[in-house]
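Q: For a teaching handout, I want to show students what a protein-ligand complex looks like in token form. Below are the inputs, and the small molecule is pyridoxal-5'-phosphate. Please produce the holo structure.
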Amino acid sequence: MSSLSLGSDRDRVLSHAAQIVSRTWAEFDVARDTQPQTSPELKKLLAQGLPQDPSDPIAALDIAAEALDSSLAQARPRYLAYIGSSGLEIGALGDLLAHSHDPNLALDAGAATDIERQAIAWLGEFLGYNNAQGFFTSGGTISNLTALVAAREQALPNSRSTGMGSNTLALYCSAEAHYSVKRAAEVLGIGGNNVRSIDIDSQRRMNPAALAQSIDTDRTAGIIPMAVVATAGTTLTGAVDAVDQIADVCGDIWLHVDGAYGLPAAATKSAGPLFTGLNRADSISIDAHKWLFVPKACSALLVKNTGLLAQAFSHNEAYIPHEHGDTNAVDITLEYSRPLRALKLWLAFKVHGAQSVRDALEGNLAQARMLYSMANEASDFQVLTSPPQLSTVPLRHIPGILTQASDSQINEHTAQLQLALVADGRIYISPAQIDGNTWLRPCFTNFRTTNEDVRVTFDVIREVSNSLVNN
Ligand SMILES: Cc1ncc(COP(=O)(O)O)c(C=O)c1O
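A: Here is the structure, written as tokens, with pyridoxal-5'-phosphate included.
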């Protein structure tokens, strides 16, 4: 037997790993009040050079478990920074299984390919995006880029071979679109300067009239509109662009919906109407590793017609079989080797059922509305003028002594408060710059977060903020 096999140790190692995981999941059920620091012994271990000789796998797993326990875990219920992940238990097991078999989804992998197709179909049904085809990628950045490669080929046929010559192409998105849209324009050779940053309305959604105007101006100047990217849940505030109205403006221009963060809410009763028109998009991206709770990395790109992706991506390499003109996954994807990312989402739907997922989403939406109401009703908190569309609640705490303070003093206080909250350790919240001011930006995307966690979050912000000015 190879010395790289665990051999007769397998069962012992596996049951030890299972104990570690079981303990970890139990700890995640309730928030902890401090973030453990990395011990000096662990720090020393983590600075050692390459081991040449074998060591006990149980001891090695224990070191890994300790390192992870003192890492910042997004899966904890009061981790409300950025757009967190939850590490859904059945999803983690899905990864273990998928990585143990390690199929390559580049070509037809048999039933594993059927699982990917079924997971995409289920996702389309869940979101109300009919007849969905597509595949899983490593993240929203790659899903967005992949869609835009196809959009470029549609806007300027054969540009994948000839380049863009003297043509200028333009891309349109809201002023608060994720930077991956600009990155895609840079990578594709469209040029970051040809990304039109369209004005937003009072609810921070792309203004469709301004979009139409921008497209007209470009067409008059001989510039080819390549694609419009609507954001279904901006990273900054969770604003959902009006997809239906934007689709009216697009006509035959490729419409991509970046729903990396917010799209799961399309499946809910309370927020679903915000996504009207989704079915009209040529492509949509969604990160299941954000608000569908499964572990990273699990993004999906859904399209109506994979033929358009094939026009942009297919290759006829001698070592890839193309029997009967079949399209392989690799003919429509940016990546070649692809793990079975679909399995964790497939298991999540299979084990918990779509209704439990909807309920968890509604739970997060309700928590965001609850925090917004608490802050809105308190004289020492500030919120944005409109209530949260999704699960992001930008807010600020203004201690009594700062009531008359200038914007810059309040910004400074908020920046200090965010650092003090991280040092305090009971909750974890990231900062954000909105209209030139500094805000705290709690975001609820974790099925483990409870309403009690929301109350604690509110109280801890107030307590730490007041203690900053009283010391
Ligand atoms: C709206 C939006 N699009 C795209 C992305 C990029 O996703 P990923 O980090 O999975 O590449 C993000 C990440 O936060 C996002 O919020």
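A: Two things your students might notice: The chain has a mean pLDDT of 96. The pocket of pyridoxal-5'-phosphate is lined by residues 83, 139-141, 178, 180, 231, 235, 258, 260-261, 287, 299 (CB under 6 Å).
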